[in-house]
Prior knowledge:
With about 290 residues, the protein is mainly alpha-helical. Helix content is about 45%, strand content about 5%.
Amino acid sequence: MTAHILPDLGSIRIGEIVPLxxxxxxxxxxxxxxxxxxVRNLIGLLQGIFSLAEDNDLIxxxxxxxxxxxxxxxxxxxxxxxxxxxxxxxxxxxSCRPLFVxxxxxxxxxxxxLALQWQHVDLVGRKLRIEQSLWRxxxxxPKTSSSIRTIYFGEGLxxxxxxxxxxxxxxxxxxxxxxxxxxEPLHPDVLRKxxxxxxxxxxxxxxxxxxSGFHTFRHSAASFINAQTGNLKLAQxxxxxxxxxxxxxxxxxxxxxxxxxxAVAVERAIYGDLFPNLFPTGNxxxxxxxx
Length: 291
């Protein structure tokens, strides 16, 4: 029965795809050597596609089942100290620093940062809106409804984003905040392999495969908030997590000002009360160097 079931779902009409097709795709991907987490993310993407088809009455039920998501062994996530974050930001090319500052101070996912357009940034109100994510040069809705969020920020990030606006010479509200000279979004793999990893190596900061990427900024930001405020609900709001635990969900509340304080707490942990000038005018480094 399985001989005719191909891993290429694109050759099958959407209404004819059944759970066995998904199971076969899952096994093919795992046997190819893909990590369980990567395959799990792929299944999650398919689940979103089929859910949309179901909502639009194109299919009666999604063929993706919970059993199709491979289990992922969870390891303790590495974090960087505040001093390490400062050093990393200062070690990357000047043209890349606004992106790294934003990653460090907001804890946003890299895909969310690369999908930021100027229409999502309010420099006067000092807040930015996470409404989409970039994956393989395509814009998608964030992972969950909780991922759609407003992030409030302080003077440090306002300075970095103002500098970025001047640097790229934005023309439209739909321009990407972090982009190549031609306006196209940056590539995450290039940023990791050609910018972040060399900076870590130059600084002697240990890194392990798959565990020392931009997501470490995210885990570090959460630890800074917890250390500075003791309020995990603020960390949940800043990072866009769906839940923490029942106590935090039911009894802990936040306000816009408190959420801004969470973002400022990350900035204060890294830079103290005096945000340095990270963008010397004499450096003509171009963001093209990372593309």
